[in-house]
Design brief:
about 400 residues; alpha/beta; five-stranded parallel beta sheet; 17 strands; Arc Repressor Mutant, subunit A; about 20% strand
Length: about 400
């Protein structure tokens, strides 16, 4: 009724598509609404589908429903079904092999020793600290971890709990996997419940802007629709807390909020009504930080995050290799002699540590330098000197 209140007239097929329910579920409901004089038959389509128009009394009814809650999307699933789905697709039940992990990190320079540390941590399905100097790829590593699981999951578009509709699927966070065999007819030949959407295992990233509100169910007072918290959106995937220790909320507040869920694998959340509900807490949590974990948290919390992995500076050889890769990516001809000049004069001579982000950043500055001077894209000692002077002036 809320949908018809918005559009005025629609076919049974369109209504079924909006609700993500089958034609045979919607058709008898529409016949009953016609009997109740909430809708009238407006005609039929070329395919024989009935089209209905909302009546005046139906419009009033739709408006009342709309005032209570504006949601008229996919029909929500029950909390029980959602809990069962998380259990069936749990991240803890996945096994990642060395080959799968290597494939997930294809394109990143990461040595075997680092992969061998990451592998057991990923297979634990519990959590890890990634720590080290800024610019060495901690966030990039965290973003790639989920790809190692190499599988897709089903997620409900919304769930219904105690009178509240809570959106779970978020197109801004989740990547839908299109089904090439998806039926376009009135009935779904595959018998798939379209209230669920197939997505890549999610990777949800929260940075320094993380607040306590994002860890709780929040209700929009205008739309009356609830938004699920980050840990619900990341279930069966990975939740990355980037720049851990630099959030606006105190570290101990965040840790106290999660110390029990990390141990028990479930969480208690408050509905807007004040009632507590029990939901799964099923994701690999990665805390990425430039600080030492022991300087951030106490022993009780460290025990619940069993893996602490340092992301080291690259070696000189890895730095050279990355310069070559970034040269090709940015359409430059490789100039090993210029890279040698860069390393000898601007790193070794001043005892400057290598960082994985620096080849990309410096070669981007070389590109900007060439464009400004209307020169061909060419790496040169002069261009590197210019880039270094700008890049490291305050570093």
């Amino acid at each position: 009724m809320k949908y018809l209140y918005q559009v005025g007239m629609a076919s049974v097929r369109n209504i079924a598509g909006q609700m993500k329910l089958s034609f045979k579920v919607i058709e008898p409901i529409m016949r009953q609404l016609r009997t109740d004089k909430q809708v009238d038959l407006a005609g039929t389509t070329n395919t024989g589908d009935s089209e209905y128009v909302v009546t005046e009394s139906g419009r009033e009814r739709g408006k009342r429903y709309h005032d209570e809650c504006t949601y008229f999307g996919a029909t929500p699933v029950s909390l029980e079904d959602y809990v069962a789905s998380v259990s069936a697709q749990s991240i803890a039940g996945q096994v990642v092999t060395a080959d799968q992990l290597k494939q997930a990190f294809d394109g990143l320079i990461i040595n075997k020793e680092m992969l061998d540390k990451l592998g057991p941590a990923v297979n634990s399905g519990r959590g890890m600290f990634l720590f080290g100097q800024p610019g060495n790829g901690k966030t990039s590593i965290a973003e790639r971890v989920t790809d190692a699981f190499g599988s897709q999951i089903w997620m409900p578009r919304a769930i219904y709990i105690e009178g509240e509709i809570i959106r779970v699927y978020d197109p801004g966070v989740h990547e839908e996997v299109e089904d090439p065999q998806k039926s376009t007819g009135l009935l779904d030949a595959q018998m798939i419940d379209r209230r669920w959407v197939r997505i890549k295992r999610p990777t949800v990233i929260a940075g320094g802007e993380l607040t306590m509100a994002e860890l709780e169910i929040t209700k929009n007072e205008t739309s009356k629709i609830c938004e699920s918290p980050l840990q619900l959106k990341s279930n069966c995937g990975t939740l990355v807390i980037d720049d851990f220790g630099r959030q606006t909320m105190p570290v101990d507040v965040l840790l106290n909020r999660w110390i029990v869920p990390l141990e028990k694998r479930y969480d208690f959340m408050n509905l807007p009504s004040g009632k507590k509900i029990k939901v799964p807490f099923d994701q690999l949590i990665i805390f990425s930080t430039n600080l030492e974990p022991k300087d951030l948290v106490d022993g009780a919390f460290l025990r619940r995050i069993p893996y602490k992995i340092e992301v080291p500076d690259p070696s000189e050889e890895e730095f050279r290799e990355l310069c070559g890769i970034m040269s090709r990516v940015l359409k430059f001809e490789e100039r090993p002699e210029c890279v040698e000049h860069l390393i000898k004069n601007h790193y070794l001579a001043v005892n400057r540590p290598f960082r994985l982000c620096q080849p990309r950043d410096l070669i981007l500055q070389v590109r900007n330098y060439c464009n400004y001077h209307q020169k061909p894209l060419e790496i040169s000692n002069e261009a590197f000197d210019f880039a270094v002077a700008n890049y490291f002036s305050i570093m």
